[in-house]
Amino acid sequence: MTVPVFFGCAFIAFGPAFALYLFTIATDPLRVIFLIAGAFFWLVSLLLSSMFWFLVRVITDNRDESVQNYLLIFGALLSVCIQELFRLAYYKLLKKASEGLKSINPEEDIAPSMRLLAYVSGLGFGIMSGVFSFVNTLSNSLGPGTVGIHGDSPQFFLNSAFMTLVIIMLHVFWGVVFFDGCEKNKWYIL
């Protein structure tokens, strides 16, 4: 039963993102490059957040549990801020790249629109976020343990798969809204 759970949850979590990639991004090599670059920017933001968390844990020496709870909340908020700063940095990079592509050949429109780039970068952010949040859970579905023995939900893997799907799609939507706010200089949208 573990193999069907593994593949079922993998298809639930990553199936829609794979379909979006296959039908809208895979046909254009430039979009694939922008998707991979977006995933890389998310990885770098995760690296910086992890370095911050490691330093804070070493400095506080894991002594007081209530302080650790507040540090966890602060770390999560800081991680989101770092991630959004990297989304802004990626937007600025894409904006310069788009202007550079337009200056190479002004008659032919090579550069994709910023709305398309927002979608592609959001999908890149989301796929990488989903991979990091769900791969360990997915590998545990292959065994050797059984979920639900100690009062845990027997639907844990299914719930995790749907939550990963939601986070991937939210990254796509957040990317589109973020880029739109930057394009129109409406900072309250962000």
How would you portray this structure in words?
The protein is an all-alpha fold. 79% of the residues lie in helices and 0% in strands. The chain contains five helices and no strands. The mean pLDDT is 86.
Major pleated sheet:
none
Low-confidence stretches: none
Number of helices: 5
Given helix and strand content, the structural type is mainly alpha
Kindly state the mean pLDDT as a whole number? 86
The total count of strands amounts to 0
**Beta-strand fraction estimate:** under 5%
Assembly type of the chains comes to single chain
User: What is the end-to-end distance?
Assistant: 44 Å
Q: Indicate the percent of residues in helices.
A: over 70%
Inertia-based shape:
flat
Order of helices and strands: HHHHH
- As a whole number of angstroms, the C-alpha radius of gyration is 20 Å
Total domain modules: 1
Brief synopsis:
Belongs to the APH-1 family. This protein is mainly alpha-helical.
Keywords:
mainly alpha; transmembrane; transmembrane helix
Describe the SSE topology:
Blueprint: H1 2-25, H2 29-60, H3 65-104, H4 114-140, H5 156-183
Helix pairs in contact: 1-4, 1-5, 2-3, 2-4, 3-4, 4-5
